[in-house]
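Minutes, methods subgroup
Present: GH (chair), OT, SY

1. OT presented the first of two proteins processed in the latest run. Sequence and structure tokens recorded below as shown on screen.
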Amino acid sequence: MTPHPRPALGLGCAAALVAGLATSLAFPPVGAWPIAFVGVAPLLLLLRDRTVARGALLGFCFGVGLFGATLYWIFLFGALAWGALVGMSAASIAVFGALATLIVRRDRPIWGAVALAAAWTALDWLRGMWPLGGFTWASLGTSQVDDRAILRLASVTGVWGVTFVVVFANAAVAVWIARRGRGLARAALLVAALAVVLAPALIPLPTASGAPVTIAVVQVDVRVPDGTSPVQEDVTVARRNIEEYRTLAGQTPPPDLAVWGEGALDPGALADAATVGTVRQAIARVHVPTTVGAVVNDPDGTQRTTVLAFDASGTLVDRYDKVHLVPFGEYVPWRRYLSWVSAIKQIPVDRTPGSSVHTISQPGLPSYGTPICFENAFPGIERTMAREGAQFFVVPVNNASYGFTAAAEQHLEMSRMRAVETGRWVVDAAVSGISAFIGTDGQVVNNTQLFVPGILRGQVVPSTAWTLYVRYGDWFPVVCVVIVAMSFLFAPSRRTSHPEPASLPFPLRGLAVLPTYDERGTIEQAVRGVLAVDGIDVLVVDDSSPDGTGELVAEIAAQEPRVRLLERPAKSGLASAYLEGFRTAIVGGYDVAIEMDSDLSHDPTELPVLLAAAEHHDLVVGSRYIAGGSVTDWSRSRVALSRGGNAYARFMLGLPIHDATSGYRVYRRDLLDALLRDPFASDGYGFQIELVSRAHRLGYDVGEAPITFRERVYGESKISRSIVAEALWTVTKWGLDLRFHARQQA
């Protein structure tokens, strides 16, 4: 199949940026959520066969498009704020791009799709924690709050499972477009993608069964004339809330709870005794338990973002302090070092976070949670509140600074996701909108518009049931981290493949290479056994054996023209002996070269089986560990050690055979010519593994044929523990190199 050409890097970056921009359409203000299922696919296609660095660059460009467009409202605070936040968020997609080049498996499209979805999900989870406590806006899972089928999955996995499914679907689309993998595997991947998208519709949601609670949300228009001082602005907003709130007096039936949004009472208002007194009088007159969003200057000199809970008489009975503050919004990290940034003067005070996440208790009401504005973007906070006994949520919100942008709509999406995750009703109480009542299925029951004063009244149904997400928390992204780690363990697939081997010539000419050192007791029998096979000559490479092996072979060669002796002056190692023999086979024009031991551990009578297999493979390895193969006269521990070492080599190097350390083999000449173009780095077991690995990576067909390995009768094994240890260490280095270097192409 002709590979799809890769676009130039510059064009690829532009395409990634456009794909990110297109994916942003899944979020408000457009809210075309189905786009999320295909928007990431172009990035995945662009990442094919890229280096880590280029993958990171492409991912970053996609992230700039996605976050830059989705978070456009940050521009209200200046280009520096927008650029910093977009760059930080896009960095997570850059990391994804780098990871994708390392973990994707072209030969296993289903696993590759799972790994890519897991990587994106894990990074999205980490983005919600770091840096500076994290930032979760524009999570792909959150874009799906209008998809009633997939949304139910959040009750089990949190938003993270929804994100996983969205990216998995994109990976399936990318595989289908690129036509990677076998047709059956690609079809199976599409079926799997459809299943994970549709199956969540079958997940039952817990039923809220408590006595309904009627809640009235106070919303005002916080806009004030230009030139209004900060203190006067605080007082003005407080008085508008008081005026709107007073309209509840005399309503029949009265609400069970009234809520003012975040920032309804800011420091300037709380510092004014008359305003505070008026608030208490208004609550006493309406005679309804009331929760007020405030910014409090405490006696210890700290300032906190707070929810103040009053009973029906206007007495303060509980309080919740925001624990997850907005960096560069409610405090300035590294203020000393950022004094040169003029914008930070807009945050003159660094607020202090609360000490713990807890619920609110007011007389006559079930316990409920009040995550404050930005906290609602973090699933763990509401989960903790639900576990602490919160039966519904009231979220004081203040998005007034973002005007009529989509910031409030995007925030509302997160409230909807939290409702499904926890199985709790959620009430967004926004000081200037959007206020909303959200059911446990994530659907908005009723809501207001931005900056429209009034009272939004509705009912919530408390619940004490725990969803699986409340019970088990962020288990799913942890699983995704494990999947990513496992993906690194698998060796990458080879990038080239040669045509199927042609038929061998007939009659066949082969050269069997038999290295010797003190093999006098077995060499004659080994040579005679090989000569019994038609068309196979013998080359004995002797390293001046003290026991006279060379002299005996010379006598045999003098009588048998099919036998040759290559005498070397000193012991030079097994690898070099085979390499010299292979070169002789190439120069001599032999069709195949045979590698085998001279100690009769490799039975010459099994050579025809290997030669028959060579009709279908470029390299045939005589295997002890496939059906029909065996080992005799070895202890169980030695067999287990050998099997374990071969399994390790198979795993680390992605080898297609089970016995990479076997030294009984048949090589075709074309393969030998390719293998010998570059020097080898190992000896002993390592050399045998290197030959197989190099042949496989070069795209040649490597197969196995069963043999029976017999422990040598004469002499001692030349393989020492140090050689075995060196081979294992070498395999480890090769495996790491495959995962992080060899798989990369410019």
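2. SY then presented the second protein from the same run.
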Amino acid sequence: MPKLNIILIALLASPITHAALNIPGIHSQALSTSTTQDATLARAGLDINNDDVTSDQDTNTYVLTEAQLHEAKVWNLTLEEERRYVFLMQNRSAIYYRGLRQTPLDILGVNARTEEERNHFAEIAAAQEAQKVAKNIAWNNAFHKAYNQLFANVPVVGDFDPSPFSPYAHQPVHLNPGETLYLFIKQDESVRTILLTLFDAIENTPNTQLHIMLIDCDDSEIQLWANKNQIPDHLVNHGLLTLNHGEQNYQALKTTKKTTPLLLLSKNGESNVVDLGKF
């Protein structure tokens, strides 16, 4: 027992150490004496809330201008809150938020130092936003009521001739008497819409012809293609439409970016490419 008493006295006489113990394999973060009391920021992983207002900015001595005093009234801020806003917009917030249509309440709320301060600005902003939304709704309702009264007996659409705006008034190809069409195609290309339009054009325009120039097809393949696409017999029998081997003529064409299907409109010894994008 005497030895135990000596050990106990020695422990009591030793200075108490506050150094943190380093446990092997476990990384511990040092405690900060300036940790934030903001639970919202703490949940986001922020231990220290650095204020954007710097130590050389004294809100107690700054004198607000007439414009700044008016701004404080507009946004329902105290003079101290307006001074803080002015200083914030001289620092990082000026770079982060200028030009983004942020209100003074937004800037003060984002830079709140405590949850209580953030909630304070949020309540003011919410009340002002409710005013704005209610006024917008009231104005829209009043405008529509006045408009409907003013034009109560005026039809929305007046009398007009819709025929110029009809899709039937705009044909992708316009033929004149004496003109000839040459359509260069391959047998596997989908050209049914183009063919129907061209059939109608030559049938309703006197002294016109359509020559279908099939590329890389023998006689039997041309016949099968004609049956598949329901080529009108009466157009062929009256010489308005012909089916031809088109390889040589296609190769002889000097047009740039030559691709099929290709439609040419010819008259008086000259030929021009027709834009198939209009079909």
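Chair's summary of item 2: Residues 1-34 have pLDDT under 50 and may be disordered.
Next meeting: continue with the remaining queue.
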